[in-house]
Design goal:
The complex is a heterodimer of chains A (about 400) and B (about 170).
Chain A: E1 23-28, E2 40-46, E3 49-56, H1 64-68, H2 77-81, H3 88-103, H4 109-138, H5 141-162, E4 171-172, E5 175-176, H6 184-206, H7 210-216, H8 224-229, H9 234-238, H10 246-249, H11 270-293, H12 312-317, H13 319-331, E6 338-345, E7 350-357, E8 365-369, H14 371-375, H15 379-383, H16 388-398, H17 402-406
Antiparallel strand pairs in A: 1-2, 2-3, 4-5, 6-7, 7-8
Helix pairs in contact in A: 3-4, 4-5, 4-11, 4-16, 5-6, 6-11, 11-16
Chain B: H1 12-18, H2 23-31, E1 36-42, E2 45-50, H3 55-64, E3 69-77, E4 85-93, E5 98-106, E6 112-114, H4 124-134, E7 137-139
Helix pairs in contact in B: 2-3
The chains are: A mainly alpha (about 400), B alpha/beta (about 170).
């Protein structure tokens, strides 16, 4: 055996052998405010000490991967929004990059930069929600109101650019759905300018707060070896001292043109994860600022009339454009056979799409690798031998979204 | 890993000839020359093919040369072709900043392979997911039970002979 606990089933053997008098089985969730969705934990406790922990998932399983197989490639994009619903643009980006890799499609520079800018705003969005809810779980209610104030600004930007606040579907295979509206970049500039102060504000509320510190420091210990063994990625991994970020080390969508630091901590506890994410937010602000400063001019769609819908104007005046439009909408476009695995760094960790094509207009298989699925495996290692109340802090610190776990 | 640019290598001989110094290729050749069935390099991604019985051994050999982080595993159902199930393991190397795919084809008659949870305990949920949605068993898995579907569910939804809109 491996020596790692990835959740021992508790339902078959309700209580560990030889402890029938003292141990109690406790059910937490699926409807519990601190489980960030519908996660059910079955806990075996000795008094207030967690002995075993078993996550039961699947309450949000909608079979998105199966549904994708019945859709055209472009129709899959709206499905991806709903997987990690706190980071819509990251989902779009990962899927689009995968299909573009299958098609070997070159994306114009402006589209790549806009994609970077919006995925970083998505990361900020995701981290703001994490910070607010994590602090709320611990009992610091105020921060939630502050972070949701800034999140609202980001959602307004998303609404303006995509017409939707949360389910944006803004990226398309081959670029973006359209040029951002006039004046939007100035609005993003105004928002991003104030954000560092706002992050200081959250930090002032939390970093020195003795209750918050005591609830996080030393809680949920998780070593670098554990992180590798259990396939943990993203900020949780970097808070265990592993210096790896796909944006920097295996760049995609022209991330290699941006300068940013990758925050790493050797703390290995919930506090380290808090610090790493807070620093990541500051780095995201820098990336958005660089994108705004150096935004290249040019088209936002690749030159591939058989894959990308034509402009409305052209469709009404040119026959070829009308034909292409009709063909794309009614029968999609064929993608050469092959398989690709495209990974990106989402707000939670490594998000990857494994797309297999058999040469037709519908994907043969779309597999979504999301960081939360692996992170849940770490719960028992982090919580074992700790107090019951620490479970709540640990769940907050690994930043899971049940939509991405159950898919 | 764009060392060969945009070229496509379609079989093992081509891959071995074009990238003899690639750590993963070298590791598999040293591990078991006969068990290293096939390989291809397509769209900047290297795929190595082994027999289902060799998955654990091959992954151990790859882990030993630096492919340290298991990232993902899943299956593809090629129904009605045989062998029916394709298992794809994606392993990342933090040192080389590169990823490889290990592929094995499993027949439809009582599909089962050895679990890799001894190599990477983190494969636990991934194997449970493949068991749940494809019905491929993993021998030696510590807790092989359904993960996403209810425990009493009949059938494996991601198989191609399972309808998208339910049985009628």
């Amino acid at each position: 055996m491996s020596g790692f606990d990835v959740g021992t089933p508790i339902l078959d053997v309700p209580v560990a052998e030889g402890a029938k008098d003292q141990h109690m089985v406790l059910n937490m969730g699926p409807q519990h405010p601190s489980t960030h969705g519908v996660l059910r934990l079955v806990l075996e406790v000795d008094g207030e000490i967690v002995v075993r922990l078993y996550p039961e998932i699947g309450y949000l399983h909608t079979g998105i991967e199966k549904t994708c197989e019945a859709k055209f490639y472009s129709q899959v994009i709206p499905m991806t929004d709903r997987v990690d619903y706190l980071g819509p643009m990251a989902n779009n980006l990962c899927y689009c990059l995968a299909v573009e890799k299958l098609l070997q499609l070159e994306i114009p520079e402006r589209a790549q930069w806009l994609r970077v800018m919006f995925t970083e705003l998505t990361r900020l969005n995701s981290h703001l929600i994490w910070l607010g809810t994590h602090a709320m779980d611990i009992g610091a209610l105020t921060v939630f109101l502050y972070t949701f104030r800034e999140r609202e600004e980001i959602l307004r930007i998303f609404e303006e650019v995509a017409g939707q606040r949360m389910m944006t579907s803004y990226f398309r295979i081959g670029g973006l759905s359209m040029e951002p509206p006039l004046g939007l970049l100035e609005k993003i500039q105004a928002f991003i300018k104030t954000l560092p102060e706002k992050i200081d504000e959250y930090s002032n509320l939390l970093t020195g707060n003795p209750i918050f510190r005591n609830r996080l420091i030393g809680v949920g210990h998780f070593s670098a070896e554990d992180a590798i063994a259990l396939a943990i990625t993203g900020p949780t991994m970097r808070a265990s001292g592993i210096d790896f970020d796909i944006r920097r080390d295996m760049p995609y969508s022209s991330y290699e043109k941006f300068q940013f630091k990758v925050p790493v901590s050797n703390g290995c506890d919930c506090w380290a994860r808090y610090e790493v994410r807070l620093l990541e937010m500051r780095e995201s602000v820098k990336i958005v600022q660089q994108a705004l400063d150096g935004m290249p001019e040019g088209p936002v769609k690749a030159d591939a009339p058989k894959i990308i819908l034509p402009d409305r104007e052209k469709m009404k005046t040119q026959m070829e454009a009308l034909i292409h439009h009709f063909k794309i909408v009614t029968e999609g476009f064929n993608v050469p056979a092959g398989e690709v695995y495209q990974a990106i760094e989402s707000g939670h960790g490594t998000m990857a799409y494994y797309v297999v094509s058999d040469g037709t207009a519908k994907p043969y298989r779309v597999h979504m690798r999301y960081p939360g699925f692996a992170s849940l495996q770490a719960l028992e290692t982090m919580c074992k031998g700790r107090m019951l109340a620490d479970v709540v802090a640990v769940i907050g610190s690994i930043d899971i979204v049940l939509g991405e776990i159950d898919r | 890993m764009a060392e060969t640019g945009k070229t496509t290598l379609t079989n093992r001989a081509e891959v071995v000839e074009a990238m003899p110094e690639h750590p993963a290729v070298k590791a598999l050749l040293a591990w078991n020359d006969a068990g290293f069935l096939d390989a291809n390099f397509d769209r900047d991604e290297l795929t190595l093919v082994v027999a289902p019985a060799d998955i654990v051994g091959a992954l151990r050999a790859l882990k030993a040369v630096g492919y340290n982080a298991f990232e993902d595993m899943t299956a593809v159902d090629w129904f009605p072709n045989e062998p029916r199930f394709q298992l794809s393991y994606h392993v990342l190397s933090h040192a080389f900043k590169a990823r490889i795919r290990l592929r094995a084809m499993v027949g439809s008659d009582d599909p089962a392979v050895d679990s890799i949870t001894d190599v990477w305990p983190g494969a636990n949920y991934y194997e449970r997911e493949v068991f749940d949605l494809f019905g491929v068993r993993f021998e030696g898995h510590p807790n092989l039970r359904r993960i996403l579907m209810p425990d009493d569910w009949v059938g494996h939804p991601l198989r191609k002979d399972y309808p998208v809109e339910g049985y009628r």
